[in-house]
Amino acid sequence: MLPGIGLFGTGPVVKVLVPILRENGFKIEAIWSRTVQDAQDVAKELNIPFYTSKIDDVLLRKDVDLIFVLCAPNLHAQISVKALGIGKHIVCDKPAGLSQEDALKMILTCIYSHARGYYE
Question: According to the model, what pLDDT value does residue 109 have?
Answer without folding.
Answer: 87
